[in-house]
């Protein structure tokens, strides 16, 4: 079967979380830097499957999930939804390790801190666009045009939703490969945004 893109379901959670783990360390595997392999997915994948304010699309190769793009059309609604429903049980589960970190790795602690202090979008970022997204693809599927296809699916979906006129995302400044990829797609810095935020106006999107 050819590689295809489809909406994600809860049944895809484990596959998506695995991809997140294998790309969480500045685009490389985080397997060796965490004790709890589900931690990256708890933060960067599962809320987008479980919360009503979010969406997700998958890149699938013969039924194997090899990449995804996830996000929310209304970031402020997503942040509130996550604060009300998603973060509290995770804080209860992992909070003890902040008090007694002897049995966990530094990487675990960094992720646990994010659970207690999740990133909140700056007002300037929301002023640019209400929508945000993330994208992750297994290394062996990168550089083949699939990332553009996933972003295209996100743009088409968000363009159909009332409200968003563009979309933004966070990049790690150390991940120069990802930064170059987004630049080729038309993402760029925008007024008032933190350095690690870049955005795309839907009117500037040029599909191939």
TrEMBL record:
Domain of life from the UniProt record: Eukaryota
The protein, known as: Acyl-CoA N-acyltransferase
